[in-house]
Structure formats: C-alpha cells, structure tokens
Amino acid sequence: MSAFFFIKNDSFPHRLDPRVKITGLIFFCMLAVIEESIWGMGLMLAVLLSLFLFSKSGVNLKKMAGFFMLIAGMTFMMWIIFYQSDEKLWAWGNLAVYSGAGTHAALMSLRFLNMLLSGLLFLSITSIEDFFGGMIVTGVPYPFAFAVSLSFRLVMVFMANAFTIVEAQKVRGNDVTKGNLIKRIRAYTPLMAPLILTGIKKAETLTLALESKGFSPQNKIDLSGKYRIRTSDKWCLFAMLLAGIAAVFLKFQR
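The structure corresponding to this sequence follows.
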C-alpha cells in the first residue's frame, strides 16, 4: 500500500482485479486461522513464498525477512513458555515445558507468519488507488473506504518523515542505527517529538486541502467500467473457493 512496499510490475498477480486481491487477503488470513496442522501451515507458507516469486516481489520479502523471523521466533518462545498440558517434560522453579508445547508453538508461529506474509504480499501487488477503488466497487461506503485509504497514506507520510529525521541525525553525527538494542531505543526516543509534531502539521495541511477542494463524506465516485472481473479473476476466485471448502472439510474430519 505504501511507496515502501508496492512494486509496480506487470505480473499476473498485479493484473488481478482489486476485488480478487482483497478476497485473497481475507482468504489467506481465514485459512491461517482455521488450519490446525503444521503440514497445512507449511503448505500455505510455500504457496505464499511462490506467489512472492511469481509476482517479482521478492525484494519486499528480503527487506522484511529479519523482522518477520524475529516476530516468529518470539511467538514460538512465548507459546513454549505459556503452553500447558497434563504432562510436564521439564521444570525449573515456576517455569515448565509441557508435552506438545513444541508442536503447538510451531503451529502458532507459522500461523502468525503466514498472516504477516499475506498482508505483505497484498501490499506488494496492490496500489492505494486500486485498494480504494476495489472497496468502492465492492460496495464499501465511501466515507469508510476514504478513511482506510487515507490512513495508509498517512502511515506513508509518517514513515517518510521518520526516514528523513534519521538521515538528518546521521549527517549531524548521531547515527541511531548503531549500538545495541538499549542504545538504539535511547537514541530514537528524542526523535519522537519532531516526528509527532511533523505529523500533526501534515494532518492540519491535509484538512485545509480537503476543505478547499470541497470534500464531503456524501461525495460519490463513479468507477463503473474501470474495473471488471475477467476470466483469470474468476478462476482465482474458484480456486480459493475450492481450497476454502477443502480446508473446512479437513478441519471437521480430524
């Protein structure tokens, strides 16, 4: 959605109708929630990684790989510590590891990772304009669709301001990217004030710009003819429907 993630390409996933992309995002997130086997989660992970390669969005995957692995690792450790069952495998004081903790922790870690990858894939192949247009043609009320698209734009503005402030500090000899975690947190803390003040200034400017252009929540945009469901979109929707039915069927068969 932001300029930091959307990659303009002519791949098959990029050419899909925005409604199909939104449906795909919801589908992958729901599939990650209902799937309860590590093999199923592993298959979903393989599909998502293949889609990244197919859409030529691997640069985003490489950019976020460290952060995603950190989140997945923390999730795994958290479930190892807090998972409980009838059989203890190891205990030390108040800490204990129970039977089945590793399997459950791996499942939850993969579940969270797949949801993050689904969101990143959507951001990589969908522009803000297409996301906004897709919500409008789907029937989402205009004020809500505008608010969602505007929130993504504001996030982009905040990130751009943050990068600008960090680069300015580097020029002044204050490299906040060096040192251990504690030093980085201390170095970043003084930068929050200018970032927040710049964000408030941008929001006020945006308000004036909207008022000057006569913006109103009652505005309606005619997007008829801009988006249409093609044969390839129908096949993608059909494949997601079959995969969803199969996942629900297997869930109730276990």
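Residues 141-223 form one domain.
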